[in-house]
Design brief:
This protein has one domain (2-85). By secondary structure, the chain is an all-alpha fold. It has one helix at 2-86.
Length: 104
């Protein structure tokens, strides 16, 4: 009789452990799915950020080029002013009527 009770207890324990293992398997599957979703969202965010970063880098390069061109233009104007000053000509300030709107 005692042997039967022990067997029944063992069977009950096996059923309980099997149920717990099934629950654990479900939880592990849920975790894996959540991890995959998180990775997808992170990569999507990273792609968006890198797109903005690329735009910012291109804009920065464009502005650097513009600054270099303006610096060259300034140097050319300084050289021209220097040449004209040596010739004995008087350099008058620019006529405000012909200045562009953004220079006023």
């Amino acid at each position: 009789m005692r042997k039967i009770e022990e067997n029944e207890d063992t069977i009950d324990l096996l059923k309980t452990n099997t149920k717990r293992l099934d629950e654990l398997t479900e939880l592990v599957d849920d975790k894996r799915q959540l991890d995959e979703q998180l990775i997808k969202r992170k990569s999507k965010s990273a792609d968006e950020f890198s797109g903005q970063s690329k735009q910012n880098a291109e804009e920065f390069d464009r502005l650097c080029t513009l600054v270099q061109l303006q610096a060259q233009e300034i140097e050319a104007l300084k050289a021209e002013i220097s040449i004209l000053s040596r010739k004995g000509g008087h350099i008058l300030p620019p006529n405000p009527a012909i200045l562009p709107q953004n220079a006023r």
